[in-house]
UniProtKB/TrEMBL annotation:
Keywords from the named record: ANK repeat, Repeat
InterPro entries given in the database record: Ank_Repeat/CDKN_Inhibitor (IPR050776), Ankyrin_rpt (IPR002110), Ankyrin_rpt-contain_sf (IPR036770)
GO annotation, cellular component aspect: nucleus
Protein name per UniProt: Ankyrin repeat protein
Taxonomic lineage from the root: Eukaryota, Fungi, Dikarya, Ascomycota, Pezizomycotina
Annotated source species: Acrodontium crateriforme
Length: 308
């Protein structure tokens, strides 16, 4: 039996027995298959995954080392979306396996997949601080952009990974005001998604304008108000001294957005504590109460009407 006949055995997804054993961590079967000399370690299934890709993704370090050291598996083979084993290790936070791959000397810690993502993009997106530390120690660019202009910092801020954010800020090489593909800066992304600790860390750098507007015209305060993140709203109004009446997209204030989305507690804070102007109009001449009425938030609208 030759390698060409044993490799393509018809398993779901075009996988070979070696793929299946590597994925589930069955090292005894992996050893038996490799010992025959009749398998192809780098054979790809229909998703372009090699056994190494699957072992890395599932965190089976012993199998990874066996494939690399004893059977010369290719650590730079491209899987789906142009990802390598190194990207998979970074994405899944397998720091020991990541280090094993780096130590082969055959992979680049700055390699990009077909979308321009580096391993650091994946580690930052999923909040894997240990892998992030390893990459930064290896000297990768912490501000590398993918094909859309997004950086690892955008990913970490957007998903609230405060420890990774702290590591990236500490490099002193990250542009904290760089806008992502949607025209939003990291502060806006963190505020909109309710990541208070990330917002706090960015503000504490004292290197950004907390009232800066994104491509669409909104500020971080608008993002926090729209989604009702009261603690972040307080940080921005009380600590960063952003005006509660700052205009954003379509001339709307944070109060307009809070009212439109029925964020009653946020509306109360903006009106009673931040002293927002309930009579402020957007570009269509509408006050916040009208927007609340349009969406059926009648209690909020009534409270606002009382203050006009």
């Amino acid at each position: 039996m030759t390698p060409s006949t044993i490799a393509p055995i018809g398993f779901p997804g075009g996988q070979t027995p070696l793929h299946l054993a590597a994925e589930v961590g069955d090292i005894a079967t992996v050893q038996q298959l490799l010992a025959t000399g009749n398998v192809i370690p780098d054979f790809k299934d229909r998703n372009c995954n090699t056994p190494l890709h699957l072992a890395v993704k599932s965190g089976h370090g012993e199998i990874v080392r066996l494939l690399l050291e004893k059977h010369n598996a290719n650590p730079t083979a491209l899987g789906d979306s142009g990802t390598t084993a190194l990207h998979r290790a970074a994405s899944n936070g397998h720091s020991d396996i990541f280090q094993t791959l780096l130590e082969t000397g055959r992979v680049s810690p700055s390699s990009k997949d077909s979308s321009g993502n580096t391993p650091l993009h994946f580690a930052a997106r999923h909040g894997h601080a240990a892998v992030t530390k390893t990459l930064l120690a290896a000297g990768v660019d912490p501000d590398a952009k993918d094909n859309h202009g997004d950086t690892p910092f955008h990913r970490a801020a957007n998903h609230g990974h405060a420890e990774v954010v702290k590591l990236l800020i500490a490099t002193g090489k990250v542009d904290l005001q760089l806008q992502d593909r949607y025209g939003d800066a990291p502060l806006y992304c963190a505020a909109r998604n309710g990541h208070e600790e990330v917002v706090r860390q960015i503000l504490e750098t004292k290197t950004i304008d907390p009232a800066a507007k994104g491509e669409q015209g909104d500020t971080a305060l608008h993002g926090a108000a729209e989604f009702g993140h009261l603690r972040i709203l307080k940080l921005l109004v009380e600590d960063s001294k952003i005006s509660p009446d700052i205009k954003g997209a379509d001339g709307g204030t944070p109060l307009h957005l809070a009212a439109y989305n029925g964020r009653s507690v946020t509306v109360q804070y903006l009106v009673d504590t931040a002293l927002a102007d309930v009579g402020a109009v957007n570009d269509k001449g509408e006050i916040a109460a009208e927007l609340a009425e349009q969406r059926g938030h009648n209690d909020t609208a009534a409270r606002l009407r009382e203050r006009v």
